[in-house]
TrEMBL record:
Gene Ontology CC: one annotated term: plasma membrane
Species whose genome carries this gene: Bradyrhizobium centrolobii
Entry membrane topology: Peripheral membrane protein
UniProt GO molecular function: GTP binding; GTPase activity; guanosine tetraphosphate binding; ribosome binding; translation elongation factor activity
HAMAP family registered for this protein in UniProt: LepA (MF_00071)
Summary of the function given for this chain in its UniProt record: Required for accurate and efficient protein synthesis under certain stress conditions. May act as a fidelity factor of the translation reaction, by catalyzing a one-codon backward translocation of tRNAs on improperly translocated ribosomes. Back-translocation proceeds from a post-translocation (POST) complex to a pre-translocation (PRE) complex, thus giving elongation factor G a second chance to translocate the tRNAs correctly. Binds to ribosomes in a GTP-dependent manner.
Family label: Belongs to the TRAFAC class translation factor GTPase superfamily. Classic translation factor GTPase family. LepA subfamily. Belongs to the GTP-binding elongation factor family. LepA subfamily.
Stored PROSITE patterns: G_TR_1, G_TR_2
Residues bound to GTP: D19, H20, G21, K22, S23, T24, N138, K139, V140, D141
Enzyme Commission code(s) on record: 3.6.5.n1
UniProt-recorded name of the protein: Elongation factor 4
Length: 603
């Protein structure tokens, strides 16, 4: 590999809303710069989406990096470091990491759909990182494309000049060479001093079975060489670098990486937890004085319990979670036990999609059959003695008498929707205790900003939003702050025994509706036993909803024919006594499906 001067390096990421064509554009760029031959690309869409789930769902979960060589029209050779980022709100922290390692962004907007909620969120993140932005209109070959209208939208909504936006179709390759030229001419080169002490940003890390932990870095100053001893400033650990290289998307080893370059190192690191994302890597012998401004750690916002259906799988589950944690630092878990479900783990996620993806990976990659409890968020409680505690699990809630105040997390949601669905979207937000902040129009689409309690969004807000808007509304949110709320702990009692897996914190005004829906659902799901089973929803000692599963009847008077009525009565009395005794000592079997179905209930 010939070394290229720093002025000929371009580091950029591709940002866009879900499904606007980021990964497809990345494919075309890789193909046109010869990163992979046509034969290697054949029959494989989205080369950079390496996980099965990414390919099936057609989404990007992990940000991926690739280094490309390009000979521009001016005859010079350039090196491009491209980062393909996810579009989903749950993986926004993946986007922020990638943006911190680049100087520019290619903003992809679908010419038929226009600007969406996450387009905005991701562009604002890029602008926060002082990025130069090259707007690109994708899918201009579609009959529904309206490039002029979308250019106007980009200027009105985002406020960046889109008059020279590049028109392309990433699928067919139309206009993609112009994107390559725009990257060379419109994006700035990185800055850095080759002779200074080594200073590199740790962008990402993942576990490889053969190499141990692979660390993705962006060199800011100095040179990263093979055999050098480096120190992670955040954790204070020192390692000897074994390999240095970059991805073309295939791994290529080199002797050194200079300033402005993005590549990987391996150094016999055993645990991904030792490599904190956003950390600064420097020379062990003469470290730099101050660390680079890393980026905010990913904070889990949704918690739920995961339990194996078969109790024997507990150790397998523990090992599987440990392995997932190796590649996904934003996923956290701790052990918990439940009377109904046995041993399991309380896990923290960035959002519901993240939860779904982790669950799916556990069941796929490790062949585990799991039950998830109702998702909940972090509540802050101020007790009467002045202490403050955080509650992740409704079961841990202290006695009501001891609580002075409960605060719940609120978010600011940005929703973009076509005008005809605006009414249903507003109603949905009102129903979820939201308060409207602003309503503006972007062409024929409405952009609404709402303050909503996260508790209401976690349950199934996204699905409901998609159904009331026939899939056209897009949604993005960020946490704002905690506000006091009138929350109560609702328990479900089956045969007078509380089922801890189904207890949840709900707003007092919503408790009755949610409780009634729960008990009705449980009534359908619990099979009849030999005795009546009362199912109740209760707040403290007050029952707010009740259903009864009828008993199986056995005709005890069948063998009595003729004779005195008192004989029949005696048998029926005896049966009644037996049922009463059974209700006292009988155990109710709640099938696993009942938990899963009950947790999906929507009032």
């Amino acid at each position: 590999m010939t070394t290229v001067p720093i002025s000929n390096i371009r580091n950029f990421s591709i940002v866009a809303h879900i499904d606007h064509g980021k990964s497809t554009l990345a494919d075309r760029l890789i193909q046109m710069t010869g990163g992979l031959s046509d034969r290697e690309m054949a029959g494989k869409e989205q080369v950079l989406d390496s996980m099965d789930i990414e390919r099936e769902r057609g989404i990007t979960i992990k940000a991926q990096t690739v280094r490309l060589q390009y000979r521009a029209k001016d005859g010079k050779d350039y090196i491009f470091n491209l980062m393909d980022t996810p579009g989903h709100v749950d993986f926004a922290y993946e986007v922020s990491r990638s943006l911190a390692a680049c100087e520019g962004s290619v903003l992809v907007v679908d010419a038929s759909q226009g600007v969406e909620a996450q387009t905005l969120a991701n562009v604002y993140q890029a602008l926060d990182n002082n990025h130069e932005i090259v707007p690109v209109l994708n899918k201009v070959d579609l009959p529904a494309a309206e490039p002029e209208k979308v250019k106007q939208q980009i200027e009105d909504v985002i406020g960046i000049d889109a008059s020279d936006a590049v028109m392309i179709s990433a699928k067919t390759g139309l206009g993609v060479p112009d994107v390559l030229e725009a990257i060379v001419t419109r994006l700035p080169p990185p800055k850095g001093d080759r002779d200074a002490t080594l200073k590199a940003l740790l962008v990402d890390s993942w576990y490889d079975v053969y190499l141990g932990v692979v660390v993705l870095i962006r060199v800011v100053d100095g040179v990263m060489k093979k055999g050098q001893r480096v120190r992670m400033m955040g954790t204070g650990a020192a390692y000897d670098v074994e390999r240095v290289g970059f991805f073309t998307p295939k791994m290529q080893q080199v002797e050194e990486l200079g300033p402005g370059e993005i590549g990987f190192i391996t150094a016999a690191i055993k645990e991904v937890a030792d490599t904190r994302v956003g950390d600064t890597i420097t020379d062990d012998k003469k470290p730099v004085a101050e660390m680079l401004p890393g980026f905010k750690p990913a904070i889990p916002v949704v918690f739920c319990g995961l339990f194996p259906v078969d109790a024997d799988d507990f150790e397998t589950l523990r090992a599987a979670m440990g392995k997932l944690r190796l590649n996904d630092a934003s996923f956290s878990f701790e052990m918990e036990t439940s009377a109904a479900l046995g041993f399991g783990f309380r896990c923290g996620f960035l959002g519901l999609l993240h939860l779904e993806i982790i669950q799916e990976r556990l069941s796929r990659e490790f062949d585990l059959n799991l039950i998830a409890t109702a998702p909940s968020v972090i509540y802050k409680m101020r007790l009467t003695d002045g202490t403050e505690i955080e509650i992740h699990n409704p079961v841990d809630m202290p006695d009501v008498v001891k609580i002075a105040e409960i605060d719940e997390p609120w978010i600011e949601a940005t929703i973009l929707t076509p005008d005809e669905y605006l009414g249903s979207v507003l109603k949905l937000c009102q129903d979820r205790r939201g308060s409207q902040k602003e309503l503006t129009y972007v062409g024929s689409r409405a952009m609404v900003k709402y303050d909503l309690p996260l508790n209401e969004v976690v349950f199934d807000f996204y699905d409901r939003l998609k159904s009331v808007s026939k899939g056209y509304a897009s949604f993005d949110y960020h946490l704002t702050d905690y506000k006091p709320a009138d929350l109560v702990k609702m328990q479900i009692l089956v045969n007078a025994e509380p089922v801890d897996a189904l207890s949840m914190l709900v707003h007092r005004t919503r408790a009755e509706g949610r409780g009634r829906a729960m008990v009705e659902k449980m009534k359908e799901l619990i099979p009849p036993h030999m005795f009546q089973i009362p199912i109740q929803a209760a707040i403290g000692g007050k029952v707010i909803a009740r259903e009864t599963v009828r008993a199986l009847r056995k005709d005890v008077t069948a063998k009595c024919y003729g004779g005195d009525i008192t004989r029949k009565r005696k048998l029926l009395e005896k049966q009644k006594e037996g049922k009463k005794k059974m209700r006292q000592f009988g155990k109710v079997d709640i099938p696993q499906e009942a938990f899963i179905a009950a947790l999906k209930v929507d009032s």
